[in-house]
Amino acid sequence: MPIYSNCYPGCSSSANCLEYVKQNAERGNPASVINCIDEFASTNHMMNIGQVKGAVIDEEIRKKKPIVMAELGAYTGYSAVRFASLQREVAGNESHYYSFEYSPVFAARVREMVEIAGLTNQVTVYVGEFSEQYGVLRGKTVDLYFIDHEKTVYLSDLKLIISSETLAPGSIIAADNVVRPGAPDYLEFIENSPQFSTVRHTIKCGRDGKLLPDLSIATFLG
After folding, report:
1. Where are the domains of the chain?
2. Entry's InterPro entries (predicted)?
3. Per-residue pLDDT tens for 155-195?
4. Burial class of residue 109, CB neighbours in 10 A (0-12, 13-18, 19+)
């Protein structure tokens, strides 16, 4: 079991980012919120998926048109706003985005960011470990999972996802930072599982711009 705290690295940046968005974003406009977060992140350390990796997942959303999406790890709400707004655009108002965030501090900020973006009816934020919250997804088919939380629980949470019977053939599991800082046990499992077809996207990562195969996109085969 990993050791968590209520304030991770990037906690102060998260608070400052929310204030920046409050001061500069157009309320009810998800694109404006995302642009403000990207502007803030250009000069501050933020643990967001970001523009480049975000665009890869955007394309998966456009192709899949997911009625149900779920993310594990929300941080400040960048991914929730970015992906939920696109989900609503391509899949309609009947679609929904479930956001699971361990830290109550971050979860509160995510809810506020979502409200500023005008996505309160699209996004539901759950607080606590995914292992204690994922029951809310039972009976649903999750078309796309996005994993970007504590790397040491990527594999255990993947196994929960599989056992929850929320996957259908064609469901997507996108996982960020599988190389840096890394989730080697997750990669070993999912890339060798006959239940999945997996590709990794090599992308410039971090401020050093190093090319790494750091974003995993897995398709559930059944």
Report:
1. 47-220
2. SAM-dependent_MTases_sf (IPR029063), SAM_O-MeTrfase (IPR002935)
3. 999 999 999 999 999 999 999 999 888 899 999 999 999 99
4. buried
Model pLDDT for residues 124-143, shown as the tens digit of each residue:
999 999 999 999 999 999 99
Q: Can you give the pLDDT at residue 206?
A: 64
Amino acid letter, 116: I
What tokens were used for 34? 């995302």
**DSSP characters over 11-35:** HHHHHHHHHHHHHHSPTT-HHHHHH
The CATH architecture assigned to 47-220 reads 3-Layer(aba) Sandwich (3.40)
Helix residue spans in 92-136 (DSSP H): 104-117, 130-133
206 CB-near residues (< 8 Å, 6+ apart): 180
Measured between alpha carbons, how far is 31 from 155 in angstroms, rounded to an integer? Answer: 32
Which amino acid, one-letter code, is at 97? Y
